[in-house]
Design goal:
The structure holds three protein chains of three kinds. Chain A is α/β, with parallel strands linked by helices. In chain A, about 40% of the residues lie in helices and about 25% in strands. In chain A, the strands form two sheets. Chain A has a six-stranded mixed β-sheet with strand order 6-7-8-3-9-10, with helices on both faces. A four-stranded antiparallel β-sheet of chain A has the order 2-1-4-5, covered by helices on one side. Chain A is globular and about 45 Å long. Chain B has a domain of about 240 residues. Chain B is built from 15 helices and four strands. In chain B, strands 1-4 form a two-stranded antiparallel ribbon. In chain B, strands 2-3 form a two-stranded antiparallel ribbon. In chain B, helix 12 crosses helix 13 and helix 13 runs antiparallel to helix 14. The longest helix of chain B has 27 residues. By secondary structure, chain C is mainly alpha-helical. Helix content of chain C is about 70%, strand content about 5%. Chain C is built from eleven helices and two strands; from the N terminus they run ααααββααααααα. A two-stranded antiparallel sheet of chain C has the order 1-2. In chain C, a hairpin with a 2-residue loop joins strand 1 and strand 2. In chain C, about 55% of the residues are buried. The chains are: A alpha/beta, B mainly alpha, C mainly alpha. The interface between A and B is medium-sized, with 35 and 30 residues.
Amino acid sequence: MNATTVPAAAAPEVTLKATGIDMAFGGVKALDGVSIQLSRGRWTGLIGPNGSGKTTLLNVLSGLYRPSAGTIVLEGADVSGARPRTLSRRGVVRTFQHPQFAEGLSIFDNVLLGADLRRRRGLQTVSKRELEDRAVHLLEVFGCWAFAEHVPSEAPYGGRKLAEIARAVLADPVVLLLDEPAAGLSREERAELVDSLKVIRTESPQLAVCLIEHDVRLVAAACETMQALNFGKVIAVGASEDVLANEDVKQAYLGKSAARHQKEGR
Amino acid sequence: MTTQSPAETTPAPSGSVSGPSRFAQKLLTSAQTGRGSLIWVRHGTLAIAAIIVLVIGLSSSSSLRYGLIYSTVYAILILGNNAVQVTLGEINLGSVAFIAFGAYSVMMLANAGVPSGLAVLLGIVLTAIVGFLLAIPTSRLTGLATALVTFALSYSLRDLAIYLSPITGGEAGVFVKGKLEVFGLSGAGADPAMLIITVIAMVIAGVGHIWLLHRRPGRVALTVGEARHAATVFGTPSMWVKLGVWTWSAALGGLAGGIYAYSVGFISATAWTIMFAIFVFVGGLIGGTRSAVGAWVGGILVGGMPIWLQKFVPPTAATLVFGLILVVAILAGGKGIAQFAERYGVRLFLKIRGKR
Amino acid sequence: MELLQTTLFLGVILGLIYALVGAGFVVIYRTSGYLSFAQGDIATVGLYVGLFAYKAGLPYWWTALLVIVVCALLAGVIGRFVVIPLERFGVLSAVLATIGVALIIQGTEALTLSTGSQAFPSAGTDILFSIGQVGISTANLISVGVCILLFIFLGIFFTSTKIGMAMRAANDNPVAANHVGLSSTNLKTLSWVIAGVLAGVTGLFVAPIYSLYPGSVNLLLVYGFATIVLGGFESIAGALIAGIALGVLGNLVAAYLNPNLVTFAVYVIVLLVLLFRPNGLLGRRPLVRV
C-alpha cells in the first residue's frame, strides 16, 4: 500500500475501518487484503476499472457478502461478518448501482423505506409526520419531487438514482455508501447529482461517505481522499490529487477511462 | 401522505411538458398500484358491492342466494390467496389447504358443542397458526418452487382427509350441526341471515385488506417482494414480513372455511380438489389481485358461475368458459377487471373535471 | 417378501410413467423456462381420438401411432399459436396460458364427450413370464422397452445433435438458436411437439390402467412435478432416475403405510428437496423467478 498523505489539519475520527478484507467466490479472489477507512465528515472516493472489486467491497461493507477474511470495525465496535440488518441499524446505509425499487409503489413510498430504517435505528424518536416532511424535503432538493407520485418505471432513470440517494439519506446514516450514482446519467443529470452531493455535504457534515464512481472528475470534485483498486487489490490511497497523479492508477485505469471518455464524447 | 397544493392544471396527455397535476398523478398511480389516494373510493365500492349482493340475494330465490353465499366464501378465500401474489409476487396454489383446515376445525369444534361464533373465531386462529407453520419452509422458496409446493399441498389434501377419516369423515363426509350465530343473527345453509353474515364477513375482510395494503404493512411487504435487496440493506425483517403475509392468507382461508362449514353444512373430502385451488388462484387474477372488490368479482366468477351456468350447459363446461376467460385476460395484459375499472374510472373522472 | 417384490416391481413400472411425464416437462422447460400444465390434457385428446378410431376397427398399433401423432400435432399447434406468443407477457403469463389451455380442453371434452370412464386398450395383457410372484404382461414389457428407448433417444438428441443442443440454448440465448438455422420460436415449437409425443406415450401407458376420462392423465401431473423437482428441472436423465425412485417410494408408502398418504408424502418430499436443494437434487440451474 502506498503511503497515505493526510491534510495538515487534525485527522478526523475514523467511523468505519475495514482491514485485510479477502473475498473469494469459488476459486476467484475478488478482494485481496483490501483495507479502507471512512472518517467522519470525509468523503472517500473508490475508483478502479470494471471488475476491480469496488462493488464487491461495497457489498462486504454493507453486509450482503461475508468476507472470507478480514475485520470491520464500526464506531469502535467489531462488526466483522455482521449481516445487513445489524449494519443498517448501526447506520451503514447504501445505494445500488441499478435502482432497487418496488414497482408496485410510488417513488415517494419507495423512499419511505429510508424512514423505516431511521425508525428502526433506535435513535431519538421522530414522528411519522416529521419523517415524511423530511422525505419531501430531500426529494425536492434532489430534484425528484416532480415524479415522486409516479411508479419507478415512469420516472427518469437519473431521477431514480437520485431518489435512491434520498432514500439512503432519509435513514440518517452514519456511513453512506454510494454505488456508482453517476452511471447511466446524462450530462445534465450529472450536474444535478453533483449539486445533490453538495447538499448532503452541507446538511450532514458529520457523515462518512464512500463514493464508488467511474467518472473521475466527479469523484475528484466530491471527495478529498480516494482509493484505487485493481484486480481486487488496493493500488493507491491518499488525497485525491495524489491518487489521480499516481502512475499505477493512471495505467490501470485512467488510460482506459480517458479513451472511453473520448469515445463517448463526454 | 403529505399535502401539497400546486396550482392544479388541466390534466394533459402524458409526454407533454406540463403533464397531469400532482393530484391527477396521485389518482393514476393509485389505480395502478392498488394503494394510495383511492383508499376511500375503494371503501365506497366495497360498500356498494356489499349492498348489491345483499339486495339481489335477499330478494331472490334461495338457490341464487346460495350461489351468492358460496361466491362470497370463495371471495374471502381469494382475498387471502391474493395477498401472497400481490405483495410477495409468488404463485400461491395452497388455498384448498387453508379452507379445508378451517372447515374441518370449525366442524369439529361445533359438533363438540362449542358456540358457533367462538368456533369460527378459533377456526380462524388455528388455521392462521397452521399457515404460519407451513409458511416457515414455504416462504423461503421462490417462483416456480412455491407454485409447485403449494400445488402439491393442495393436491394431497383430499387423500390426507380420507386418511384421517376418523376425524374428518373422509369422503362420506360429516354434517355440521346448528346455525352460525354471530352479529346478532342466526343462519345456516341458504338462509337470508346466512347471506348477511357472509357479506359482513367479506366486508370486514375487505376493509382489513384495504388497510393493510394501503398502510405501512403493505408498503413493507411490497418492498420485500419486489425489491428484496433494498429491503434487506434497509434493515427490514424480511422473513417475518413474509410469514406475516402467509399467516394473513391462512387466516382468511380459515374464515372462509368456517362460513363454508355452516353454509354448505356438509364437509366431504371430495370437495378438496386441485381444480378448486386453481380456480381460486385464477379467479383472483381475473378479478384483480389488489382489490377487495376484485376478489368479490373473482369469487362470483369462479364460485357462482358454475352454479348459474348449469342452467345452460353441463356443470363441467364451466371449466371451458373459465379457460377462455383466462386466456382472454392474459391477452388483455393480465391486470384484472378491478384494475381496468379503476383506471378507466380515474381517467373518466379526470376528463370530466378537466372540462369544468 | 412377495409384497415387497410386487411393490418394488410395480413401483418401477409406475416410476417409468412418472419419468415420462417429467421428461415432457423438462423438454419444454429447457427451451422456454416454464412448465406446461397442459400436458395431461393434450394426452387425453389424443387418447379420445385413438379410442374412437379403435372402436371403428383400427388395430391397436395403428391406434397407438394415431394417438402419438395427434398429441404431437396438437401440442405443436398449442405451443406455436397460443402459449409461445404469450411468452412476451412474461413467464407467469405463459404458465397461466398453459393452465387456460388445459381448462379449455377439459371443458370441451366434458361438453362433447361422456364424462364417464371408458376402457382403453393396452398393448397386451397376456402374462408373458413371471419374476417371483409378479406376472409381467406384454404391456409391461413394452412400456419398459419403449421408455428406455425414448430416454436413450432423448439423451442422444439433446447432447449430440445440433438441433437438440440448440434447443437447450434457446432459452438462454436466442442467437445460439439461430446458428442451426432455426428461429427460437421454431425450436420452442419443436420442444412442444416432442413434449406432445411424450404426453401421447404416457397416455398410452396410463389409460389402460386407469381408464380414460377427461381428467385421467392429469392425475399424474403432480408426480411429474415431483419428478423434476427431484431430478432437476433440466435433466432428462434426472427425470428417469427420479421418476423410478418416486414410483418405488410411492408404492412402498402405499403398501406399508397407507395409499392415502402417498400424495402427502410427495408434498413433503418436494418441500424438503426444494428447501435444501433449490435446483432439484440433481439439477444445476437456479429456478428463474416466475
